[in-house]
Amino acid sequence: QVQLVESGGGLVQAGGSLRLSCAASGRIFSINAMGWYRQVPGKQRELVAAITSGGSTNYAASVKGRFTISRDNAKNTVYLQMNSLKPEDTAVYYCNAGVVVDRRYIYDYWGQGTQVTVSS
After folding, report:
1. 104 partner at 20 to 30 Å CA-CA among 18, 65, 85, 112?
2. SS (H, E, C) the chain
3. pLDDT > 90? residue 83
């Protein structure tokens, strides 16, 4: 019913920048909070940044001041600008959205993940 498609991952040197995008499509009435999570092998998925429909944001302590989350509600898209990247930022990054379907049902959707690799 709803798909989240991520783009923008890749390989970058330490200190560099990447911008991730995640576009939602399908039977969407509206979208509540959207966020980015990341996961490395053998570890739990962790929240990187989140943004409400009104634009309030919160960040993991490890990325505060380096990453910026934003969204375009008209395009149902969320972005993650990542600056001053560090090798420890290497992970698969997943987009998440709380989507209101048919005006009343709220479902949690995930993207397929995009690899971010930061070389030292």
Report:
1. 112
2. CEEEEEECCEEEECCCCEEEEEEEEECCCEEEEEEEEEECCCCCCEEEEEECCCCCEEECCCCCCCEEEEEEHHHCEEEEEECCCCHHHCEEEEEEEEEEECCCEEEEEECCCEEEEEEC
3. yes
